[in-house]
């Protein structure tokens, strides 16, 4: 077999192995290692490239953002800041049709700014928001759908684990990726709120619900008490990065210390909880490091096989325009989203398309935002739909089936697709803060 045939076969093999349940880094690493061995008929070369991939991943300074932001997100969840911001949002939207849904979106957007995890958001707001919506006779499918849809904000609004992973794969600045994620994240949150308002206005039966008039307004003192802690975190962490006072690594360390201090002062964490957060941080960090290492050797294998160049030559020969290249890219990501998780999609697809995008003079930061938003649609689509599975498992309510969760999340997946199209059409939206 020629190198290009080996490369194409390896890509197909990786997708099949992941779909069959093989751990993603193992599928990436083993197939890439064997492919390099076969292409060059040199076992020592394959081993040396593997060593280089491991060394590059471990020694990268910005990799320290992974454990620091992960730990901060876990501590903030334990401190109950997500529930606090939801209560404030719910009070503000209480008289609007679908107000709890809008409050959930708003609270998720704020929560995402300090956790960066869609799974954490789905878990927290399944416990906080869905039961209250059901108590006020909201449509169960709407209740779980709005939580599933808004949970993806955790992977778009910085700090985001997926933006960090993309920055390693595409060799872009983590700080630039964080800044680029703000406007698209806020756009998506606004689009969700607009969709809920539209349904409340023109299809109220879809939302359901009854009046909240008996609910008292929160006093300004209560609002301040519940919002100041998370506001302080956002200002310190993201403000420090955007003003240049802190590097992403320093911001992660500062945010972790501040979040831990808040959790201790609020008596939301003890030594056992602290130890559990450390262990979970270690597990998540090791998993991401393994992913990045596997992605590194995978990218080297594709380069040696000449797959990106062959793909570029094919598209050039076929004279595909920018529109069609992005169309195929989005369709591919949505298709893979029905089979794979977001990290897998980024690690498999981005190395294939980066060599095509860069010569076109397009921003790789913008391309990263498009990639993450496109891949995140997969969190809401069957059969994988990780956020939907998390919501179902967290609720453990016999009245709501997994089918209900997927059906409820579908309109929000469509809204995501519309926002993605807008971001592709107007790249300046993603680069607004950077320019």
UniProtKB/TrEMBL annotation:
It is found in: Cell inner membrane. GO terms for cellular component: plasma membrane. The chain crosses the membrane at residues 12-38, 58-77, 98-122, 142-166, 178-197, 277-298, 318-338, 373-393, 405-426. Keywords: Cell inner membrane, Cell membrane, Membrane, Transmembrane, Transmembrane helix, Transport. Residues 12-428 form the TRAP C4-dicarboxylate transport system permease DctM subunit domain. InterPro entries: DctM, TRAP_DctM. It is a multi-pass membrane protein. The keyword Transport applies. Its main location: membrane. GO terms for molecular function: transmembrane transporter activity. It holds the Pfam family DctM. The complex comprises the extracytoplasmic solute receptor protein and the two transmembrane proteins. Part of the tripartite ATP-independent periplasmic (TRAP) transport system. Belongs to the TRAP transporter large permease family. PANTHER family: C4-DICARBOXYLATE TRAP TRANSPORTER LARGE PERMEASE PROTEIN DCTM, SIALIC ACID TRAP TRANSPORTER PERMEASE PROTEIN SIAT-RELATED. This is TRAP transporter large permease protein.
